[in-house]
Specification:
Layout (H helix, E strand, L loop, with lengths): L3 E9 L2 E10 L5 E5 L8 E2 L4 E3 L1 E6 L20 H14 L2 H17 L2 E8 L15 H13 L2 E8 L21 H11 L9 E3 L2 E2 L7 H14 L5 E5 L3 H11 L3 H8 L6 E5 L5 H10 L2 E4 L1 H7 L6 H6 L3 E4 L9 H16 L13 H16 L15 E4 L11 H10 L6 E6 L2 E5 L2 E2 L2 H17 L4
Parallel strand pairs: 1-4, 6-7, 7-8, 8-9, 8-10, 11-12, 12-13, 13-14
Antiparallel strand pairs: 1-2, 2-3, 5-15, 15-16, 16-17, 17-18
């Protein structure tokens, strides 16, 4: 069979198109996306075809505690008290746990339509900061899990140097995350060498936040990345929490967003994670720079972060992507639904992610997040364009609720109706990774995950 897929309907960058023939080369790189084509010897998709969705922000290990921080432990329970539960989990993780949890997560992500993931990876050391014999051990476990699951990976080693804006030392648990520009640079060099240059692996870097790095470290870690991956992406938590913004202003005299733009040349290679409390002027400057805002609506809701002003950002043509973050959800459909519903609640209006000439909310959200996510993960070309990855998500055209519907309505139902996963097939770089809703590694992944969480929970971790 040819390296080709034929779709009766497909969501291209220009909108929905009929009878689209996709072709790709032996590397899994698209060479053509031709509307009005013929199937020929191509595989025929059994439902509408969407571009694969990048997951722009992942802490894979947190999948092991999803739903387990929902009992109030403090009079003012918030992100900061949730973080203590997360730290208890992090303190108990072994490299085997890291790989097992990541594999289970990545299988789930692919089954729900994510075809690549940006792993914001900060578990660099053993408990209490004890170095591993091989400093790259935890990173290599993430690389192995992604390869096993068949998902594209952008690995973002995190620079985490301080415990707060006052540059206080990291506490006992945080010392697992510790690093400096030199150590991150050496890790990037190791990962860029020989056997790790898999075509599905991209390298970037993640200065954790304005509270965890200083200006000199920020410049040095960007320079370290540029020496290894000149076009590699840079991700950073920015203005997620109102308390974070207040503390930054008190300590540094400016907001986190302003501090970042005063100390780095933010451009299209940057993805600012959350950005919940960025000011209108900061958002305007970021849009002008071409930066991507990485939104994680289900985690942001779970942690009580607040609601990002997406209505203005969308109407102004701002780039955006979605991520799973703590993975209380593993579905891009759920993230996009939460993004739209948050705006409806805040504005007391419906169908916010639309404008004149672009009334289809589901198509706007999926296409926008796929395009922004592609850029955020450091890919070479946009989704469904020549030179881009042959990543496809095929909806199940036989789904009960799709009866007699056209493709745009099917996507709308998949995104805004019920919790059932309506993804039938998923291709990553032209390879079928999910077929008829089944991932070939799901039983193996589940067995490893059960073993890991049984040990962790037996040790008292969430």
């Amino acid at each position: 069979m040819e390296r080709a897929l034929f779709a009766a309907a497909a969501l291209l960058e220009s909108g929905w198109a009929r009878n689209v023939r996709f072709e790709w080369d032996e590397r899994g790189v698209l060479t053509a996306a031709l509307p009005g084509g013929m199937a020929g010897n191509a595989q025929v998709a059994k439902g509408p075809v969407l571009p694969g969705m990048p997951n722009a922000h992942s802490h894979a290990f947190q999948r092991a505690m999803a739903g387990l921080a929902e009992v109030r432990g403090h009079q003012t329970d918030d992100f900061w008290t949730w973080r203590e539960a997360m730290y208890r989990l992090a303190a108990n993780l072994t490299p085997d746990d890291v790989e097992a949890i990541a594999l289970q997560l990545y299988v789930e992500l692919v089954k729900h339509g994510y075809t690549a993931v940006a792993e914001f990876h900060y578990l660099h050391h053993g408990p209490h900061g004890t170095p591993y014999d091989d400093p790259a051990e935890p990173s290599l476990r993430i690389v192995a899990a992604a390869a096993d699951a068949g998902i594209g990976l952008t690995l973002l080693p995190v620079l985490y140097a301080y415990g707060g804006f006052d540059h206080r030392a990291l506490d006992a648990v945080q010392r697992r995350f510790a690093g400096n520009a030199e150590s991150i640079g050496k890790l990037l060099q190791r990962l860029s060498a020989g056997p790790f240059r898999d075509p599905s692996l991209r390298l970037g870097v993640a200065p954790h936040s304005a509270r965890a790095v200083d200006a000199a470290m920020l410049a040095d870690v960007i320079a370290a990345l540029r020496s290894v991956a000149p076009e590699g992406p840079i991700h950073m938590h920015v203005s997620e929490q109102a308390a974070e913004v207040r503390e930054c202003v008190a300590a540094l005299g400016v907001t986190p967003g302003r501090w970042l733009m005063d100390n780095a040349a933010v451009d299209r290679r940057w993805c600012l994670i959350h950005g919940t409390h960025l000011t209108p002027e900061e958002l305007r400057r970021l849009r002008s720079a071409g930066a991507v805002i990485g939104l994680c609506p289900t985690t942001e809701a779970d942690l009580g972060d607040g609601i990002f002003p997406f209505d203005v950002h969308f109407a102004s043509g701002g780039r955006f992507a979605v991520g799973g973050d703590s993975h209380v959800s593993v579905s891009p459909f759920a993230e996009l639904r939460a993004l739209e519903y948050g705006q409806r609640l805040a504005l007391q209006a419906r169908n916010v992610s639309a404008m004149r000439g672009r009334p289809d909310v589901a198509a706007n959200l999926w296409a926008g997040a796929a395009q922004g996510g592609t850029l955020a993960l450091g890919e070479d070309a946009g989704c469904f364009s020549a030179g881009g990855r042959a990543d496809f998500v095929v909806l199940d055209g036989s789904d009960l609720d799709f009866e007699e519907l056209e493709a745009p309505a099917m996507l709308s139902v998949a995104m805004f109706s019920g919790e059932r996963n309506r993804v039938r097939d998923v291709f990553v770089r032209g390879k079928a990774v999910v077929t008829d809703g089944r991932h070939v590694r799901e039983e193996h992944a589940a067995a490893g995950f059960r073993k890991a969480v049984a040990r962790l929970r037996g040790a008292g971790a969430p």
